[in-house]
Every structure is written in structure tokens, then in C-alpha cells.
């Protein structure tokens, strides 16, 4: 099936399509550039807190319909996240130097 | 569900909440106090466990459900929770001395053990597949991190990575099974799935099989056992003790609950398969354990064999035999004491980053540390199933249930397996009692010594006077079988 699609499929190449994907911006430099190891730590933390923020967003949209119950639950959720944030700051995970 | 329901359910799951709160406070406290945290975090972890234990005792005798029937806080769950809490307590006490060299992360270590225990407690009481999966993952992810805790050791890191990847696969298979069952029945509640179960519908059969595969991986039974020796050998010693007791008991807890509360209709057709798995688990575990030159790896293979003995009871429980189910529960209870003890002795003898692994490390233990050697003797006799220890009575009940269910060959294979196991357990004692010292032993450790004394007394005393432990196991088995009996 993979072979068939490569034989039969239409091929319309363009400069934009052939260039490596870099989240929509024009590629800069080659792919072998090195990142600081700290970048990965910050990246992982960003994803963690970003996902948690998504829950807050959903809750905020339907805040009035959910009422008190959801409010208390989100407060508990936030306390847990703040504990995590406090831990991250205290451990120095966000200190770049 | 309104606010009062949620509050009521939240109060009912006090044991789990107390562990989670203690864990969160631990990591915050650990990050503030840094290296001075040592004793405070240890005491706080013990307080968290004690509160959870006290609240869990209240669950005996009452059967409640929380969160709209998602969690069943019955005797069955309470009995298993006692096993998990004993495992966590012993692991924390052994770790106190073990971590002394690298106690920079002691708070995280204790917190992860508490989180993992709370996951096991959710798992043992879940009556619905979403909370089941949640408990399963809380338990597993904490244990993945714990097994890679010795960051500077290549083997510990390898153990963590291996466990993470293979465990991730097994979770994915479990989740796929859950998805198929949901697709076929339209519900994630165990009792609803039981009601709409159709043997002719392949979705049900495939879903049930995939779910069971997920549990069998965690148990470490035959076709999916290859990860056990590597992970148990690489992980820090006290983590191995915790994993081999807690994770295994939790997987058995949910295996039994799911089989009897949800997959009861196809239980008969799955039994021959479980028979084969049990037999091969016993054979592979015992035969591979003979050839090991590392005590830690030997105990890892022996834990596979013990999972096989417990599976004998699961096979014999076919048709809803209350004695067989309670024999499995009791076996896991007994295994907790003796296996924690055996790993505890090895933890005691590990010094500053060097684990006590080879048989030579144990040479001359009797002349230098007679009490440690004596407790090691008790645990090894109990693991081999020699009376009057708890290991003998647990094995006796499992084999008896196999005979009562007319699985004679299963009982014979189990007995032959435990005769083989006597060889490698007694070999440890030959080194400990009859050889002379090769390398010096570490100095006296207070907390671990107390834990070893308590565990060895329990191993012998519960063997002679089972007190309520057997009756409570019978009652626990009764609660999980009510659905199967026609409820």
C-alpha cells in the first residue's frame, strides 16, 4: 500500500514543501546545532505546566454552569500545582546560570 | 454528583488522601530544608503511613462505595491495603539507612513510595476501568522513577528505562483492552460489563484477554517475565523490596477483582490458559534461580516462581471457590513478610553505594552478625516453605485449594517447584553460616535492625498463630466473590 501510493500519488514539489519542518518558520541553519542541556529541562517543565493550564482554560469557559463544586476542585488542583511549582523553583530548575 | 457527594467520597478515601498529602508536603519540605531534611522527612513519611493505616483499619467491617461507585472500599481492598502499607513502611525504614550516603533526594524517594502506595490502594479498590487505569499508572510511574533512583549507576538507569518502556507497552495493551470492552458494552463499570457480557462477541473476549495481559505483565508471570530479573537487579535494594511485594500484590488484587467481578462468564475458558501460565511461571522461575551467582538476581527469579504459586490459587478459584481466592490473598500477605525480610537483610548489608549482591558478600555472616544471619535463616526457610513459618502455611493453603479443585498436577508441579527452590534458598544459608568472612560487614544500623526483628518475629509467629489474618482473608475473598455468585 505504501509502495502503491508512492507510485500512483501525484508529486507537486515546491520549495516550501521540501524544506524541513520547523513549526512553520523558514529553517535557519542546519539541524546539527547544539542546545544547552538546560533547554530540555525548561522544555519539559513548560509542557507540564502548559497541560495543566489547559484544564484551567476549559474550566474558565464553563465556570458559571459548574458552580461551587468545580471551583473547589480547581482550587485543590491549583494548590497541588503550586506545590510542584514551588518545588521546581526551590530546586533551582529554572536558574539558567 | 453534587458537592455533598464529592465531600463524602473524599472523606471516605482518607487513607489515599493522607498518603498523597504527606507526599506533597514531603517534597516541598525537602526542597526547603535541602540536606538538613533527613530525619524530618523520614518521620513525616512514617506519620503519613500511620494515619493511612489507622484510617484503613476502619474499613474492615464496613463496605462503602465512593465517587458514584467508582471505588469500592470493602474488606477486600482493606486487606490488600494492609499489605501495601506494610511494604511501604518496611521500604521506607530500610531506605533510611540505605540512603544515608546520597540523602540529597531522600524526600523525593519517600514521597514517590507514598505516591506509589496510594496508587496501589486506588487500584485495589477500583470498580471501574478509569479509576483502575489511574491507580495503575500512579503506581507504575512512581516505581519507574524509583527503580532508576541510583542515577550514577548504569544498571539502575538501565532498569528504570527498561521498566518504563516495557511498562508503557503493557499499559497501552491494557488500555486497548479497556477500549474494546467499552466499545462492546458501553460502560466502564465492572458490574455493567459483567451484565452485558456475551461469550459470542469477539470484542468482549479480545478486550478481556488484553486487560489480563496487562495485569500478567505487572505480576511478572511466564511469557511476560523477562523484565523482572533485570529491573529487580538494577533497582536500588529497598526499591526492589517494595516492588516485589507491593506492585505484585496490587496486580494480583486487581486481577482477582476483574476476573470475578467482570470477566466471570469467560473465566472457565481462560482457566486452561492460566493453568499453562502458572506451570511455566513456576518452572522458569525456579530453574533460572538455580543458576544465578547474584543473590539479588536469584531473589528476582524466585519472585517469579512465587507469582506462579499464587497463580495456582487463581486457577483453582475457577468457579468461585472462596477458599482458593482467600489462599491467593493469604499467600501475598505471607510473601510480604518473608520477601521484605530477605531483601531487608541484603539492604542491611549494602554499604555506601556497593550493594550486597554475590553469595560471597554473605560469607561469615553468622560469626559477625549473628542476629542478622538468624533472621536471614528465618526468611529463607519461610520462602522455601518449611514449617513452622508463615511461608509453609501459605503454600499449604494454595496447594490444598488446587487439590480441592481437582487440579492434582498443578499441586504436584507446585510442590516439585518448591522442593527445587529449597536448593537455592538453603545455598544462601550455607554461605552465611558455614563460610568464613571475605569482606567486612557494615556497621550496626538501628532502624533496619528493628524492622528485621519485627519481620522475622511476624514470619514465625503468624505461621504458628495466624490470629485473624486467615479469617480476614476469607472474608475479603467473600466480598469479591459476591458478584460472581449471582449478585
Which terms would index this structure?
heterodimer; A: about 100 residues; mainly alpha; Methane Monooxygenase Hydroxylase, Chain G, domain 1; 5 helices; about 65% helix; flat; B: about 475 residues; two-stranded antiparallel ribbon; 20 helices; globular
The SSE string of chain A, one letter per element, is: HHHHH
**Helix and strand string of chain B, N-terminal first?**
HHHEEHHHHHHHHHHHHHHHHH
- Helix-strand category of chain B: mainly alpha
**Reported CATH architecture of chain A:** Up-down Bundle
CATH topology (fold) name of chain A:
Methane Monooxygenase Hydroxylase, Chain G, domain 1
Mean pLDDT of chain A: 81
The biggest beta sheet of chain B is recorded as: 2 strands, antiparallel
User: What's the number of helices of chain A?
Assistant: 5
**How many β-strand runs of chain A?**
0
Structural domain count of chain B = 1
- The level of helicity of chain A is 55-70%
Cα-based radius of gyration of chain B, to the nearest Å: 21 Å
What is the distance, rounded to the nearest whole angstrom, between the alpha carbons of the first and last residues of chain B? 25 Å
Oligomer: heterodimer
As for the number of domains of chain A, it is: 1
Please describe what this structure looks like.
The complex is a heterodimer of chains A (97) and B (487). Chain A contains five helices and no strands. With 97 residues, chain A is mainly alpha-helical. Chain A has one domain: Methane Monooxygenase Hydroxylase, Chain G, domain 1, CATH 1.20.58.1610. Chain A is flat, with a radius of gyration of 22 Å. Chain A starts with a helix and ends in a 7-residue tail after the last helix. Chain B has 20 helices and two strands. Chain B has a two-stranded antiparallel sheet with strand order 1-2. Chain B has one domain. Chain B starts with a helix and ends in a 6-residue tail after the last helix. Chains A and B meet through α5 of A and α2 of B.
